[in-house]
Amino acid sequence: MLRQVQEGLSRETAKRLRFVPGLIYVDEGVVRGQSAAQREQSLAHVETLLRATGFPYHLAHLEQALELPASILRPGPGGSGEPNSSYKEAVEGFIQQQRHEGDRDGGTSLPGSQELPPDAPRLPAAARTQELLRLFEAVETPTAREELLQMLRTHLILQTARSRGYTKVMTGESCTRVAIKLLTNLALGRGAFLAVDTGFADNRHGDVMVVRPMREYTAKEIAFYNHFFDVPTVIMPPLPTKRREKPSIHHLIERFLLGLQEDFPSTISTVYRTGEKLSPAPAQASSESQRCLLCLCALDIAGEEELALEPTLITEEPEPAGNGCCQDTPTAGTESKAAFVPLLCYSCRLTFKELGPLATLPAYVRAEAQRRIRRADTQWQSQEVPLEDREPGKS
């Protein structure tokens, strides 16, 4: 995808791209079993590749996701989707400035790439690293661990885009990856949200739209392209697991589809084309109370039978105290894992059950959940007392 963007911005291209690109790399080596020396080596290699592009780039660490604000779980002020006049003027100014720069020195670097100094490849503090490791070690299943990693990565990229002023995020999912994700999310109970999870445009975050421009190319086509044009690549190890066979639903679906693709070459394209027919309407929420806390999609539990939602319920168990005994049920005002369940959709409920105790969850998730719980309690109390029963002179 980066190579395609570079070609689209070159002077020899007939139809040049009309946007200012930036690059972001999220270091996930801490949860992928890499040592500190290996992470430093990978960061140095990635930074060399990013600096060679001439684009402004940003290096982020997964530990930084623990310091995100609670506002990352709220949609930003989204517009109509049409660029305003100021954006058009900025694009025209960028095109004119790039032409002057190219005529003067014949270079292809973008204006402003030197104005944003690159982030130094320093590892976060050891305390943050240990906190992140405790979070992933508390997760019960590899499937929930994959979902947690995807959530933290998405929130970190979204926060970087908002703080740097970007309105769109381009991700490099191929057609093969989209087909695998489509069946994976279907198995995880996200059938109502397949259109936004795998579609070309995902605008659930409001002010930042996620687009997937590489979804028309298969993984085999991309591999051949990288080989013939000598595109440098960086390969990261998978999440470590003790189970070799069927470590997670994600890997199980991937192995199934790729194995089926060998005997039936149209499998990936058939699954992909089927997902194209889905509508994003079921994922749109009308209010905050109808929006999932983690994925920001609509709550898909309305009208469901109690028996169908029973696997998503959480029973509060007494937690062991310091003397080896068990504490009582959490009192009012304390955090309760069961209180978070009504804020989640069906799929996020299943994942949330396997994320371990609340103490290990990121602080921004707990803060936003408590804010929504308090707001719901306030609205319920205001509706409980009728207006005619209130004393005159009081409001």
Which key terms come to mind for this protein?
single chain, 395 residues, mainly alpha, 3-stranded mixed β-sheet, 44% helix, globular
The H-and-E topology, N to C, reads as HEHEHHHEHHEEHHHHHHH
Strand order of the largest sheet: 3-5-4
Number of helices: 14
Fraction of residues in β-strands? under 5%
Provide mean pLDDT, rounded: 81
How large, in whole angstroms, is the Cα Rg?
24 Å
Number of strands: 5
Assign a percent range to the helix content: 40-55%
N-to-C terminal Cα separation, in Å? Answer: 59 Å
Low-confidence segments, given as residue ranges, are 79-85, 102-121, 318-324, 327-333
- Specify the structural class: mainly alpha
Q: Mind explaining what this structure looks like?
A:
With 395 residues, the protein is mostly helical. It has 14 helices and five strands. The protein has helices spanning 2-9, 36-53, 85-105, 126-137, 142-164, 175-187, 194-198, 219-228, 249-263, 267-276, 306-309, 337-340, 346-352, 363-384; strands spanning 23-27, 57-61, 168-170, 201-202, 209-211. The strands form two sheets. It has a three-stranded mixed beta sheet. α6 (175-187) crosses α9 (249-263) and α6 (175-187) crosses α10 (267-276). It is globular and about 70 Å long. Residues 79-85, 102-121, 318-324 and 327-333 have low confidence and may be disordered.
